[in-house]
Each structure stands twice: as C-alpha cells, then as structure tokens.
Design brief:
- The chain has about 325 residues and is an alpha/beta fold.
- Among the domains are: about 80 residues, Conserved hypothetical protein from pyrococcus furiosus pfu- 392566-001, ParB domain (Alpha-Beta Complex), CATH 3.90.1530; about 60 residues, no CATH class; about 60 residues, no CATH class.
- The protein is about 55% helix and about 10% strand.
- The strands form 2 sheets. It has a 5-stranded mixed sheet. The chain has a two-stranded antiparallel ribbon with strand order 6-7.
- Strand 3 and strand 4 form a beta hairpin.
- Helix 4 packs across helix 5 and helix 10 packs parallel to helix 13.
Amino acid sequence: MDYKAEWVATDSIDKTNCLYRITTPQGKLPIDASVKRIGLLSPVVVKKETDHLVVVSGFRRLESCCRLKWPRIPCQILPDDVSKINCAEIAITENLTQRPLNVVEQARCLQLLSDAGCDHPQAMAIAQSLGLSLNHAYAAKLRTVHSCSEAVQDGIVQGKLSLPIVVLLAELPSKDADALASVFIGLPMGLNKQREILHHLKEIAARDDIAITGLFEEEGLKDILARDDMDGNRKVGQIRSYLKKRRYPHLMDVEERFENYYRQLKLGTGVKIQPPPYFEGPTYTMTIRFDGLEDLKRENDNIARAIADPMASKLFNLI
C-alpha cells in the first residue's frame, strides 16, 4: 500500500473521531516528554475524508503533539480508495506490534473489523492472521466485553474483573451490572467470592422481585458499604454474611445458635464437631486431634464432660 508522507496541520485532523482507536487509556503514561525530546519516531497514520483527516493509528501521539501545541505533525496519509477493512487491519497491526493487548483492546479489535463490514468468520480469520489468538468461545466472550459499559471495561483493564464474572454481569440489567461492578472493583475479593455475592444477589432479587440496586439501598448492606473506616477484607466478610442471612434466614439462624452453643461447651482445639450440611439430616461429625494416649484420655474426659452439659442437648436438638 502506498502512503503519502507529509506534514499536516493538527487543526485539519478530526480529533473527535475515534472509530479506529484500540488502546485503552488506563495505565498508559503520557508520552509528552519523549515526543518533546526526540520527536515522533512513527508518524500518525490518517485517512482523508471529505473536509478533514481521520486518525487510523497514532491517537496518543496526536494527543501528545496537541498538548505540546505543535501546529503541524508528520503523517502517513492513506490512499483515497483505502477500505475500512484495510484501515482496521492497519490499526490492529500497529497496536499488536507495540505490546500485548489487554482483553478490552482485543474486544475492540474484533468489533472494529465487524464495524468495517466483516462478518463473523471473516473477522475471525483476519484477526487470527494478524496475530490475535482467538477461538470461537473466546471471541464470544470478547463480544460480551465490548457490549459492557465503560465502568465494567475499566474494571477488566484494572484486573479487578475477570472474564467469567464479566460474562455473568452481562446477563444483568446495565444499572445492576454497573452497581455490582463498582463494589467488586472497590473491594479486595477473588473470583469465587464475587461469584458467591452475585449468586446471592440474583436469588434474593428474583425471590423478592426487587432490583439489585434496590438491595444496595437496604440499610444493612448500605451501612456496610459506607464504612470507610473498615478494612476491605472485613467489609467483604460482612457483605457475604449479610447476603447469606438475607438469602437463607432460617439456616443462618440455626448456624448462629449452633456456634453459640458450641462455644459454651468449651471443647477446646482438640475436638471439632461439624453439623450435617445445611442442617439437613441427623448425622454430625466429630474430629479428635491428640498426641499420644494421655492426650486422648484428656480429650475423652473433655467429651464426657461436654455430653453431660445441658448445652449439648440444645446443640444436638436445633432442628
């Protein structure tokens, strides 16, 4: 492809048209200092429109030059007959040769090809030929990423939201998804805890016919989220407990009474009693840890004392 190299007035470039922009700004430091010191090593690639130029590649370079008040910048001007698909290929190729692309940027590449007129198989074939590692399952997730709000995409770029949780968030109304994404981004929790919280919220919302944003307005949850003086991990723990109790009030009541009675038995660290899962069924499990015969005798006496305690009757007759 023949490029026309020339210096172009910055005022003649449409800075609002970001059709071919792929780079996410998060974590990208300004390049003003290097541009001021050594100039542009790579010209900005532009395409002619009716009365202005559109950037195909080099958005950060253009922005830096504008901040430095350069009246003109070196550009590579594409031929007049260049297609949108060719422009998309140029934008994707230049970004791929500079660095590994994050998930949002990969999603933008695929969407850019689609916007340029490629059907799904063609977009997949071109993206793979340019160096994007894609399969159909991953491409479907990337399309989900592109359909998410900017807030959710920011969470992905920050590493606070993973692809599996983003796919689940995409099933929610956008307002609910953004509210939940904000909580996930602001608090320290991994995928499993995010899934647990999302699962509880969805089930409570469905049962009580209320939006997830409405649950965030409940006094109990609202108070926890508003506690700026509370450690993030502790806050996550309280949110999980609140939602579990909200979702399973009877089960949580039984669990709290079990823990209360169990503490009062004072069995120590050598003996552990576990109730049946979800307190469904009569079978409890006891684990005894001991060092030698004498230690076992002491634990046996401890268990005998606990069995005679009236609190044991309460412990094993919760249901």
